[in-house]
Amino acid sequence: MIRALYRYPVKSTSGQTLSYANVTEGGLEHDRKWAIYTEDGGIASGKRTRRFRPVPG
Fold first, then answer.
1. Rounded CA gap, 20 and 4, in Å?
2. I want to staple 35 with a disulfide (CB 3.0 to 4.6 A). Which of 11, 18, 27, 50 is the partner?
3. Is-contact 35 43, C-beta < 8 A?
4. 3 state SS for the chain
5. Residue boundaries of the structural domains of the chain
6. What are phi and psi of 37, to 5 degrees?
7. Would you write out the chain's pLDDT as a tens digit for each of its 57 residues?
8. In angstroms, rounded to a whole number, what is the distance separating the alpha carbons of residues 8 and 34?
9. Which pTM does this prediction carry?
């Protein structure tokens, strides 16, 4: 049973509640479609740094 469905268009940001989703070979459509890159070319992550802070909305 699926109780909730979320999509995260930008890595390490708040999710969007969905009532339905299209599934592609890469996963949920538009899930983590965008990312923020660090100066050294890595993908920024809220799990690995304290540089990010919560932003309402």
1. 10
2. 11
3. yes
4. CCCCCEECCECCCCCEECCCCCEECCEECCCCCECCECCCCCECCCCCCCCCCCCCC
5. 1-45
6. -100, 145
7. 989 988 887 766 778 899 988 888 888 887 877 777 878 888 777 665 556 565 565
8. 9
9. 0.49
